[in-house]
Amino acid sequence: MKRRFIAACAVAAAVSAAATGCTQDGGQGAAAAAAPGRHTDVNDSAAELGHADELRISDAEQRLVKQCMNRRGFPFSEHRPLTLEESRPVGYVQDDADWAREHGYGSRIEAKSDRAGRHNPNLAHRNTLSAERRALYDAALDGGRDASVLTVEVPGGGGTIRKRTGGCVGEAQKQLYGDQKTWFRAEKAALNLRPLYVADLLRDQQFGKAVTAWAACMARAGQPYPDPEAAREGARRTARDLPPDRAFVVEKRIATADALCARDASLRAVGRKRQAHYIGTLRAEYREALDTHRRLQRNALARAEEIVGPRA
After folding, report:
1. What are the pLDDT digits (tens) for 239-270?
2. Is 233 among the domain residues?
3. Domain match, 203 and 188 both
């Protein structure tokens, strides 16, 4: 069930026509706040921020957290292991052939990100602290165990998300977004609408025709896969039986054909159009959250531009 949920959300993420994501449940503690993560594609149109802008906000938050932690007597590193190109969102529809020729489906980038997560200097420092000092570190970072906790129900009954509101993380988010409670609720509503429409999108006739056209193109290219997820799984399956360098060559070959056929079939354009249709059926109920999310995110970008430069 979880695998099907994730695969369905990948479709919506890749053709995104609104800032709507998939999260079943979640929480953030001190360790999570200190760890890096790969970016998630949640853009819709020119009205929504691109991933470079979202990275800039994230980098600005790290800078603010570092400054705050230093004031409180703790070291904190700004950890940006991935370049802007490496941080490019990769979803169900991947239609950038140049990127695919260089990175395939991003398996090596994912491995790099995983390694960076395991060797995050902030987590490494925290692990060297005594229990007493670690508790002080956690309190400084996000309020620790005694912090106030915000709670929001995921749209459609998909679960509950909780977040600590204190410490330097809370202070940084207030500087960027203003009221932390308003931002948290708007963000989690906006980023968790996909389960409400993704099943309809997967059954959509127009989107299905575009996938069929993509599959025909792939067959002509010698890559007979029924849909983009199957192509990606084929690359992963092949990688298990080949030496790493050879597996990466195969991954790039499949990914490049995938991207070229996605362009040929206008798969992203069709997906965005149909997703916009289904999002439209939800806007009456969630308009306030979506508009608030967009407004606060743009305000945060303006502030971030005064704090850090763009990711290289």
Report:
1. 899 999 999 999 999 999 999 999 999 999 99
2. yes
3. no
Co-location of 204 and 261 in the same domain: yes
Q: Kindly report whether the global pTM for this prediction surpasses the value 0.85.
A: no
Angstrom distances, CA of residue 294 to CA of 59, 223, 299: 19, 40, 9
Q: Does the pLDDT value for residue 2 go beyond 80?
A: no
Q: Is residue 132 part of a domain?
A: yes
> What whole-number percentage of the chain has pLDDT above 90?
73
Q: How far is CA 47 from CA 17, 28, 201, 219, 261, in A?
A: 10, 29, 22, 36, 27
Statement to judge: residues 177 and 224 lie in one domain: no
Question: What would the pLDDT profile of 137-161 be if each residue is shown by its tens digit?
Answer: 999 999 999 889 999 998 887 789 9
pLDDT tens for 95-119 read 999 999 999 999 999 999 999 999 9
